[in-house]
Specification:
two-stranded antiparallel sheet; 3 helices
C-alpha cells in the first residue's frame, strides 16, 4: 500500500499500529523496520522523507 500512496503522490504513515508485517511471511521486528522499508521505496517514486520541520508543518504542529 505504501507504494500505491507514493505513486499517487500521497503521504505515507507506517508503524506497528497499522501493520505488523514486512511482507506476507515476515513479522516486523520493530516500527523502525517498517519505516526503513518505506524509506527504501521512496527513491523509486522520486520521493524523500519529510524533515522534522516539514512534518510539523504538514501536521499543523507548533515549532519544536
Amino acid at each position: 500500500m505504501a507504494g500505491c500512496a507514493l505513486a499517487a503522490g500521497g503521504h505515507v504513515r507506517t508503524g506497528m499500529e497499522d501493520n505488523v508485517r514486512l511482507d506476507r511471511h515476515t513479522l516486523a521486528p520493530s516500527n523502525a523496520a517498517l519505516v526503513q522499508q518505506v524509506v527504501a521505496l521512496m527513491p523509486e517514486y522520486g520521493r524523500r522523507p519529510a524533515s522534522v520541520t516539514e512534518a510539523r508543518v504538514l501536521l499543523s504542529l507548533p515549532p519544536g
